[in-house]
Amino acid sequence: MSLSPKLSLPSRLPSRRELLWTAAAGVVLASCRGASGPTTAEAASPAGDAAPAVTLRDACRALGIRHGAARDHYIEPEDPMLDRLMARECDVVTPENGGKWGVFQPSEGQYDWRRFDAAVELARSIGATPNWHTIIWQHMGMPPYMKLPAGRQAELGISEGAYFSPDGTLSEENVWSRFTGVVDAVKQRYGDIFYRIDVANEVFFWETAESHPRQQDRFGFRRGMWWVAAGGADKGPEWLDPFFRQVHAAFPKAKLVLNEFGIEIDEGWQQRKRAYLLDWLTGAVRRGVPIHGIGLQSHLIAGKPYDSDGMRKFLRAVDKLGLSVHLTEMDVDETRLPVSWSREEKDRTMALLARRYLADVLNNAKLEELCWWHLRSDLNFIAREHPALRPHPSPYDEQSRPLPLYASVVETLRDKARTGKARSG
Q1: In a 3-state reduction of DSSP, which class is residue 302?
Q2: Is the pTM of this model over 0.85?
Q3: Any alpha helices (H) in 14-55, and if so which ranges?
Q4: Domain named GH10: which ranges (predicted)?
Q5: What does each C-alpha distance from 361 to 76, 240, 249, 356, 368 come to in angstroms?
Q6: In CATH, 16-23+48-419 is 3.40.220.10
Q7: pLDDT confidence of residue 75
Q8: Residue 376: beta bridge partners?
């Protein structure tokens, strides 16, 4: 995912309260100090993974929230320091790529479970619970055979090439049998072990300057391969319902969510996406669809205007529906901040953004899970795409030392614990 590279400075200056918090964050990091010497955020030790005095997991557990992170054993195959960090911090483990259809069934009927197995085994070995991310991915993550035949592009009037392939054989006739086949195969291999399952990922439209109205339907859905094959044009918002019902029948213990991104910014398309999401969630609850919550990817963007008022309203509306909130892929993107800013200025801005966002969620919704898109910044996709920047999108650095982002989240959670329990379900 990439948004417009246009630079935008923070929409307002930090308040006096936030400036005071910035100073207080230093106290939290100082709690990571050993008997002598600099904080663990400042000192590189040979082991590199000294535990902070307050873990994110402990701060979450005090509020009844599960804490965790993504891990992909084929991107970072052997990393004992990362394993120790995951063991210390994680109640849940998400296979970053291992649970995606295109990875574990790259050819029809041919399964490769290695990456999925590795994440499940890691979760078991550290006493955590695995998630399944994701079954339906409307835009990406599908093998060529699970795309529409390229010859149908003109017929359907859809210009987005990602939904089509010369090897594509997905159709109205086989979409259901393929879906149920994958669900059954995963159930047979792992059983009903998953804490959360992302039944559908990024099925709502992502507007860009090049977008064409025909790329989305009137309910906000992408007119993608799943929408076409499952009859979205005729069934309207109900085209997703059977998929949730089938997954619930196979995995009755799992929390089923619709996983989405791109709703936090004060821009028109994200505000419209919020409205589309809320409309569908409202209808799904009314229709008795077995959905337990909304998965908010929470890829926050520093330097873009965060829509606190809009998010609070959205979260309260989700709460009124009786749905919980799962922060499924949290990180903070610093690539829109001025290149002239110091590391400290960037870290401070990112920490404040994370604090505002998390406080809004805690105060307006039932937060059940906080899952990072990697605990260590060097393993996050932003770091892979911008290696020269050495960004800090995650709460720990490459030596498993806590960053200011860690301090901001811990202090926000502890603030909530002091003022009142989070409304976890």
Answers
A1: coil
A2: yes
A3: 16-30
A4: 50-412
A5: 31, 26, 30, 9, 10
A6: no
A7: 76
A8: 396
